[in-house]
Amino acid sequence: MVEAGARASARREPRAGSREESNPLLYCALGLVVPGLGHIALGRRGTGAVFLVSIGLLFVFGIRMEGELFPFEAAAPLTLLAGMAEMGAGAFYVAARLLGLGAGNPEAPTYEYGYAFLIVAGLLNMLVVLDAWDIATGAKESADDTAAAGGAASAAR
Amino acid sequence: MSHFAALVLFAALVSPAFACLMREGWAARLRFTAWAFLSFVGFAVGIGWIMYLAGG
């Protein structure tokens, strides 16, 4: 019980001289702008690349399937929520808006799939941003950290 | 694009992202990706058959 509490508090406290000392919000902002960039900045390049490719392709296929980037209509709460979810894709969303893409074609057979892809891309990136927060604050240890801690412990023995 | 192709594409893109969020180490992530992909496709096909048989 006491050990578990000590472990939990140790997890919350940033380690001196580590990346946790820098502002976790910075990594979240990077991840929100470009999917995976927060993880890349945290030194997890492979993981960041997987997020960038997965979310990027989800968004691109969503647009190709004639999915819709929903407008922000306060009168239609579900449309508003869908639009907010799609915004989570960050740079992809902004680029699509600037290029005039995502008008959507409700008559296309893939329309529903398209906007589902777009919404999932945005929501998935929000999860990725929360993951970057956990890593930056030390709430989630990376496999490298665990291996390093194990190595240090066995060296101390 | 057929419904099944869209399903497979969705599963193929989402599974590795979930694996990176939920597992540490590339071997565990690869296993989770395969499991998630097969689950997405398997459950969708299964539920499709249930709807077909129940509705038929």
Summarize the structure.
Chain A has about 160 residues and is mainly α. Chain A has eight helices and no strands. In chain A, helix 2 (about 25-35) runs antiparallel to helix 7 (about 110-135), helix 4 (about 45-65) runs antiparallel to helix 7 (about 110-135) and helix 5 (about 75-85) packs across helix 7.
Task: Characterize the structure shown.
- The complex is a heterodimer of chains A (157) and B (56).
- With 157 residues, chain A is mostly helical.
- Chain A is 68% helix and 0% strand.
- Chain A has one domain.
- Chain B has 56 residues and is mostly helical.
- Chain B is built from 2 helices and no strands.
- The two termini of chain B are 25 Å apart.
- The model of chain B has no long low-confidence stretch (mean pLDDT 93).
- At the A-B interface, helix 4 and helix 7 of A face helix 1 of B.
Keyword list:
heterodimer, A: 157 residues, mainly alpha, 68% helix, 0% strand, elongated, disordered C terminus, B: 56 residues, 2 helices
Structural class category of chain A = mainly alpha
Overall mean pLDDT score of chain B?
Answer: 93
Count of helical segments of chain A? 8
- Alpha-carbon distance between the termini of chain A? 24 Å
Mean pLDDT of chain A: 82
Write the topology of this structure.
The complex is a heterodimer of chains A (157) and B (56).
Chain A: H1 2-12, H2 24-33, H3 37-41, H4 45-64, H5 77-87, H6 91-98, H7 111-137, H8 143-156
Helix pairs in contact in A: 2-7, 4-7, 5-7
Chain B: H1 3-22, H2 26-55
Helix pairs in contact in B: 1-2
